[in-house]
């Protein structure tokens, strides 16, 4: 038996997608475990971020150096293109 905690909004949105595929979260997790057991790898590539990436993520999570744009044109203007 597996117990996990997932942010409710994330869980609800993902479960809507699961329904579109006609599968349950239980089925998906079981298939994930079967894949890992059989292939001895994850079904996606995971990488440990380098120092600059970690620092950038931390700064963004803290709301530092974040630029918000109201539209694509606003983004282009802020990028100077």
Description:
By secondary structure, the protein is an all-alpha fold. The protein folds into two domains: 45 residues, Arc Repressor Mutant; 35 residues, no CATH class. Helices cover 59% and strands 0% of the residues. The protein is built from four helices and no strands. The radius of gyration is 19 Å and the shape is extended. 0% of the residues are buried. The mean pLDDT is 92.
General form = extended
Output the CATH class name of the largest domain: Mainly Alpha
Q: Percent of residues in beta strands?
A: under 5%
Q: In angstroms, what separates the terminal alpha carbons?
A: 54 Å
Overview features:
81 residues, mainly alpha, 2 domains, 4 helices, 0% strand
Please give a quick description of this structure.
This protein is an all-alpha fold and 81 residues long. The protein has helices spanning 8-21, 25-39, 51-61, 72-79.
Fold topology:
Elements: H1 8-21, H2 25-39, H3 51-61, H4 72-79
């Amino acid at each position: 038996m597996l117990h996990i905690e997932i942010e409710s909004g994330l869980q609800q949105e993902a479960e809507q997608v699961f329904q579109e595929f006609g599968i349950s979260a239980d089925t998906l997790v079981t298939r994930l475990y079967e894949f890992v057991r059989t292939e001895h790898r994850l079904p996606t590539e995971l990488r440990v971020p380098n120092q600059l990436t970690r620092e950038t993520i931390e700064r963004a999570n803290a709301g530092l150096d974040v630029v918000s744009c109201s539209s694509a044109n606003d983004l282009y203007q802020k990028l100077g293109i």
